[in-house]
């Protein structure tokens, strides 16, 4: 199933984009229109995407669709690509994301199908299940919970009191604690001295089977891709997972762990309490991260790290003994 959680306002013409951005266009006709604004990996012929300077790769083929870039990245293109050149890609994406997309209005939600709730499920009388949602067999949803429109909750899943779930697909046998927030917009925006511009997030949260989410955790939906939590991964209370994060299978994160946006976590990773993992990193399989560690760079498979900034555990212990023993 691929439920929709947002309204696509496209196609949008290049002249309307010029009205909203200070930009130069290359190899784009004045009657060109764009169906969507999306991640570069999903870019198609009539679509629009973006590349930050650090993301450009000369080995990639960027011939499909139109790309928003800076002038510095524009100079790196060897082919005749359709480009929109701006001073600040982040700001342009923030502006255009709100031009292309919005949430459903109350009137549009009312037009969705009535929620489908299996007869064997136990839904508290104060819980709210919005239209378009599908609730599986033997699901328990506690008092004060809200399941947003078009969400899917799999069989044998339990949702404790006062939890809010939106923009999410949740598999079977998942346990979610109380006061959890899943699927809210992530912390993505363009910094503007007078008025920061939030990026409208069109991604989802995908939670696979057997996941356990402790109380007071937050899991943000993706911006232009999904936030994904792998099978049998366990989060203690008070963990935060930012937008676009991908977590593998059988991971364990102790309380107050934070994972910043767009980081990829492998399988069988363990992190102690108050560990902080920076954004846009790749953490390998079977990695162990000690409590209160600050992870600022990629970690290869089978490594154990400690400290802030986190380094090899045994190097850290050796240095500690030398300085403090």
Distance between the termini: 58 Å
Largest sheet, spatial ordering of strands: 10-13-16-19-24-27-30-33-36-38-39
Number of strands: 39
Reading off the top of the CATH hierarchy, the class of the largest domain is best stated as Mainly Beta
Structural class: alpha/beta
Assigned CATH architecture of the largest domain: 3 Solenoid
The major sheet is characterized as:
11 strands, mixed
The value of Rg in angstroms is: 22 Å
CATH homologous superfamily of the largest domain? Hexapeptide repeat proteins
> How many domain regions?
2
Low-pLDDT segments: none
Keywords:
alpha/beta, Udp-n-acetylmuramoylalanyl-d-glutamate--2,6- Diaminopimelate Ligase, Chain: A, domain 1, 2 domains, 5 helices
Characterise this structure.
The chain is an alpha/beta fold and 325 residues long. It folds into 2 domains: 7-102, MurE/MurF, N-terminal domain (Udp-n-acetylmuramoylalanyl-d-glutamate--2,6- Diaminopimelate Ligase, Chain: A, domain 1, 3-Layer(aba) Sandwich), CATH 3.40.1390.10; 163-324, 3 Solenoid (UDP N-Acetylglucosamine Acyltransferase, domain 1), CATH 2.160.10. The protein has 5 helices and 39 strands. The chain has an 11-stranded mixed sheet with strand order 10-13-16-19-24-27-30-33-36-38-39, covered by helices on one side. Strands 9-12-15-18-23-26-29-32-35 form a 9-stranded parallel sheet, with no helix packed on it. A hairpin with a 6-residue loop joins strand 21 (189-190) and strand 22 (197-198).
């Amino acid at each position: 199933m691929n439920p929709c959680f947002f309204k696509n306002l496209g196609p949008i013409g290049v002249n309307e984009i010029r009205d909203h951005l200070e930009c130069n266009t290359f190899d784009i006709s004045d009657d060109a229109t764009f169906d969507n604004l999306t991640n570069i990996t999903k870019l198609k012929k009539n679509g629009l995407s973006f590349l930050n300077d650090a993301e450009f790769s000369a080995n990639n083929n960027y011939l499909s669709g139109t790309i928003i870039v800076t002038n510095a990245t524009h100079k790196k293109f060897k082919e005749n690509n359709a480009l929109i050149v701006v001073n600040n890609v982040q700001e342009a994406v923030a502006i255009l994301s709100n031009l292309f997309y919005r949430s459903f209005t109350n009137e549009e939600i009312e037009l969705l199908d009535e929620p489908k709730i299996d007869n064997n499920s136990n839904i508290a009388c104060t819980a709210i299940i919005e239209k378009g949602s599908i609730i599986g067999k033997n699901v328990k949803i506690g008092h004060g919970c809200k399941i947003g429109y078009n969400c899917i909750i799999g069989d044998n899943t339990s949702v404790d009191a006062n939890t809010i779930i939106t923009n999410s697909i949740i598999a079977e046998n998942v346990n979610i604690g109380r006061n959890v927030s899943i699927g809210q917009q992530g912390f993505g925006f363009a910094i503007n001295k007078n008025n920061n511009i939030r990026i409208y997030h069109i991604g989802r949260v995908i939670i696979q089977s057997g996941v356990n989410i402790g109380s007071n955790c937050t899991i943000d939906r993706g911006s232009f891709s999904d936030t994904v939590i792998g099978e049998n991964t366990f989060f203690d209370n008070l963990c935060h997972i930012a937008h676009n994060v991908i977590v593998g299978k059988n991971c364990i994160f102790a309380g107050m762990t934070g994972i910043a946006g767009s980081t990829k976590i492998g399988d069988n990773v363990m992190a102690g309490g108050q560990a902080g993992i920076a954004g846009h990193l790749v953490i390998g399989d079977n990695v162990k991260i000690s409590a209160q560690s600050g992870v600022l760079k990629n970690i290869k498979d089978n490594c154990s790290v400690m400290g802030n900034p986190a380094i090899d555990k045994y190097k850290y212990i050796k240095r500690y003994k030398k300085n403090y023993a």
